[in-house]
Amino acid sequence: MDERPPSDGGDDGPRKSAKALGKAFSNIDLDGHNLPPSPAPSSPRNGKRYALATELVYTEGTDQYNASSQPIYQSATFKQTSGSGGNEYDYTRSGNPTRTHLERHLAKIMCAERALVVTSGMAALDVITRLLRPGDEVVTGDDLYGGTNRLLKYLSTNNEIIVHHVDTTDPSVVQKALSSRTAMVLLETPTNPLIKIVNIPAIAKATHEANFKALVAVDNTMLSPYLQNPLELGADIVYESGTKYLSGHHDLMAGVLAVNNAALGDRLYFPINASGCGLAPFDSWLLMRGIKTLKVRMEQQQSNALRIAEFLEAHGFRVRYPGLRSHPQYDLHNSMARGAGAVLSFETGDINISERIVESAKLWAISVSFGCVNSLISMPCRMSHASIDAKTRRERAMPEDIIRLCVGIEDADDLIEDLSRALVLAGAVNLTPNSFSAADHGKAKKVDTQSNDIF
Ligand SMILES: Cc1ncc(COP(=O)(O)O)c(C=O)c1O
């Protein structure tokens, strides 16, 4: 198994002879930078590909003692066997065996040529945006994660990147924003918290037709590789926050990038090595452990989410979840993904009532983020999306009262009972002798299954 890592030695001083550099850097990228060879995805020794559930847990390591769990190489440096360097690893900013093991495993499960792991989902996006040059245009959505919005705003304010926020749920709207100046199209699907679906294949095709050099990058955080593989849908780059489903326990921050083009992988590796945002050995080990249980967690979270979405909808709330037939893009979502995920949102029609629901829930922790084994509740406009100013939120039709539920692996009946109690305490429902239904605060109504506009 070729575990050959990236390497530049950290210390760029005289100890590196030209010969050693030549050995370590066999490639030159488009901008003339020397680059190390790409580590290949790991693959089973007999070459057989298994179902994803099996691939998630199946790994082959090169540990000298055959450790079942890849050891944590908690070392910044690696001694060289000769004065001219050139060993597999020399400096952890450039490469570390624990990180390489994780990257090769991720490349395998993401069906990618190369995967890279960095310190957060936003660090992954930062690495991607370093491909951009002043004057480049980016076309992206109008319902983006707040942190993504913030980074793009920074780039448009300071780095002369022109960013077009459009409704990416309509490929014809995206098409109109594309031109030969488009360098990147940045997509999220489902969007968060409005849970709108984006047609990745249609937009990827239109983008490449408009400019064959333009890159389509997809944030796959909401679904994880277990449920969706954007590279197979036409994307050039997939990235996600490993802080969410991949790790699953909210005990680490990480970001993952994956590509199917070795040269593009090298270009993405360059800023990681140059800036040192590669994931640390301990966090790489922890993320590797989380990935092994991705299937069982996601299956449980998803089935709980469907129960809760059906419960809320049956009681008259306006619910956004692509696992519900009432979702206007149910068919589109299912044409791309293997499941609906475990994030949903609903509206009450009243900000104060929404606040009381969030505060009254006990099992549902008030927390940003999602993908954790514990269930979480939040008001995005007050928390994860507060970095988008109120005017922009209004322009993007983001309801201020919207509540986001990120469903965990607990018992579904307990979660429903706790939520019911919170709805009653908050005055969100009218009680009837045997049941309750959403109090009419103007918006808490069932969705129109025929219309896309209602979302
Ligand atoms: C959809 C989405 N993308 C990216 C990120 C950023 O990930 P991280 O917090 O790991 O930087 C988040 C974080 O919440 C997110 O929700």
From TrEMBL:
Pfam families: Cys_Met_Meta_PP. Residues 1-47 are annotated as: Disordered. SUPFAM superfamilies: PLP-dependent transferases. Signal peptide: none annotated. It catalyses: an S-substituted L-cysteine + H2O = a thiol + pyruvate + NH4(+); L,L-cystathionine + H2O = L-homocysteine + pyruvate + NH4(+). Its EC number is 4.4.1.13. GO terms for biological process: 'de novo' L-methionine biosynthetic process; transsulfuration. Keywords: Amino-acid biosynthesis, Lyase, Methionine biosynthesis, Pyridoxal phosphate. Belongs to the trans-sulfuration enzymes family. This is Cystathionine beta-lyase. It comes from Ramalina farinacea.
